[in-house]
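anyone else get weird line breaks when pasting these?? whatever heres mine. first is seq + tokens for prot A
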Amino acid sequence: MTRPIQRAARVALSLACAALACALGLESWQLARALHVNRYLEQRLADPTPPTGQTAASPANDPRLWIAAARQPAGAGRIAEAAALLRQAADAARGELRQTALYDLGNLYLREALRVRDSGADASALPLLELAKENYRSVLLQRPDLWDAKFNLELALRVAPDPDPADTGAPQILTSERAVTTMRAFTLGLP
């Protein structure tokens, strides 16, 4: 009776070892890929001219690289360059990586809008705020539980509230009773 139990235990142990070996192999491959991308990023940041002849599998086509590379121009005030990198990453990525790129793009626009607004150019900050709100909303459509995006969207809405959809810009039409009681300098011809 102990032989079948020992055999079952040996089989279960062998299966567990095989599963762990597969998981270790996958983790090792992902670590090697991340190290390769990090090495490429270091080279790219040291020499900003992009290498020629990149293949589709090269790190230059990795959205993680574009997100990381956008930090340097954003910090240097080159907003258009950083936004282009983040937009490229958002368009190429899926899932959590896309959400990260869109969130970072929203943060980039919000920071720039607040900087422009603080310098006294309120009208110039509005398009940037609208772009920030659009990116935060895109992130929240995919992941509604992302509190950082909710907070930043709320901040952008406090700075530049969305227009009321019922407000078309036309003057209000008064109801007949209110119109009569609120009119000035007009007599109804009553005795």
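and prot B, same format (seq, then tokens)
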Amino acid sequence: MQVKKMFRLSLVMLVLGGGLALACTVPVFRYALDHWPPDAYRLEAPVGWLASEAGDELRKLIEEGRAQIEVHPVAEPGAPSRLVMPDTGQEVWRGDLDGAASSLLSSPARAELLRRILAGESMVWIMVRSGNESMDQKFEEHLRGRLEYLQSVAAIPEQDPTDPINKLGPGPALKVQFSLLTVSRDDPEEQVLIRMLAGPEVALLEKEAPFGAVVFGRGRVLGAWPTEDLADEGIDEVSLFLLGACSCRVKFQNPGWDLALAVNWDEALLGAQMEADRENEERVEAGEESELAPQEAEEPAPAPELVRFGVEEGSRDNDAALSGASGTPGRMIGSLVAVVGVIALLCVFIGRADPKGS
């Protein structure tokens, strides 16, 4: 079981490297958002089709949408059009580009994924539903419940805003926030995304069972796993890894692969920064106004509200999802696990021999 192996290795490294001090305090998910541009997919298409009006239109769509796709003409007669992953050359789509080109660049789920990342979510878990209602419901409820609990106890490394080494790039406010996005395996608009999510784990596409993947940064997939690998232990290990301090700043030395998304990341992150600044100004203004109204300040402060992200209203018993949470001590423990345990796990990945990180 891949996730459990990661967990055991992190414990070993925790014992061996407990005194390790790291200069980087930026969480993995945010460091990736700031510094790791996605690798481009390769779209192979017949020379004749690319020379047509439809081919010109496709190139225009890719350029305007800034999709992470490079077009490569194929001169071989009768060669099919296909979309392949960076580095591995694994095929995620094959067929006729007429009428299918737009689905290679974007889809409703990818648009929602981008919205959540640019809103500041630490990571987005994506569940690919199998069509077996019983299996899907059981897995979804378990994954949602565990993510709710983790969000209530997890923490990120403390950031020093005056430290130039760990200065954040333009983007949304730094926070701990999880969500779950579901995609149906038989959705015709999401077939390319589903194959991208599975990546090298092609066996997941052959099983009649749901699977889960987690996306962070600029559309990077940390991994994709079957349900049996995503018990509480596996979900915790993956989530806390991404919340922990980034000890390995080189992208290809970290696990995962990229999605092809139609977005200009630099412009989008600047827009997210402007939105975050605007919201912060509104909060400051609201605080100044409250000081001008002393009668309101005398009222008792409302109880803290626990915000749950990615949970549909009425989907499960919200209180039951948080059973086992331990308030302030629990948050302290979660912080230690995130900062110490995950640092050790990253050390394992640094030492991997494969330069592709696969």
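btw re prot B: Residues 265-291 form the longest helix (27 residues). The chain is about 45% helix and 15% strand.
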